[in-house]
Design a protein that fits this description.
The protein is of the alpha+beta class. The protein is built from six helices and four strands; from the N terminus they run αααβααβββα. It folds into two domains: about 40 residues, no CATH class; about 80 residues, 3-Layer(aba) Sandwich (Glutaredoxin). Helix 2 crosses helix 3.
């Protein structure tokens, strides 16, 4: 696991060459490496977006409109759940608890949790982050 994390941190995902190299290094099959990668949600076989948007789908968030929020974001970005935009700016995911139930619906963008999320709030957050990164 630490080797998978290290490679993914360096490359952003785990491609076929990484899988072959890790399997050989640990004297296991490619299939065994792939089993670990696909079992854990944190590992990726493809490059994800710069901004990974995770929309909580737990009960508290459902009661306050997370499904509508997710549908709005899917439409806005023209993505389905688990897809990444062609320019690799955004990946859209659903999760089943962010531990922020009191401020439902909740969304996590990379490491930042946004409570009482709305599509406007999410798009404003992304716009602000993009302006900050362009001004660096």
């Amino acid at each position: 696991m630490p080797a998978l994390h290290a490679v993914q941190k360096e490359l952003g995902h785990l491609d076929n060459e990484c899988i072959k190299t890790l399997a050989k290094s640990f004297n296991i099959s490619n299939a065994e490496v792939i089993d670990v990668i696909t079992y854990y949600d944190d590992f990726r076989l493809e490059k994800e977006g710069q901004y990974i948007i995770k929309v909580c789908q737990a009960e508290a968030c459902q009661s306050l409109g997370c499904r509508t929020l997710l549908d709005t974001l899917k439409s806005h970005f023209e993505l389905d759940i688990g897809q990444t935009s062609n320019d690799h700016s955004v990946t859209l995911k659903e999760v089943f608890c962010l531990g922020n139930c009191a401020l439902s619906p909740s969304v996590m963008i990379n490491e930042d949790v946004i409570g009482r999320a709305s599509s406007e709030k999410i798009l404003a957050y992304l716009s602000e982050k993009q302006n900050i990164s362009h001004n660096d």
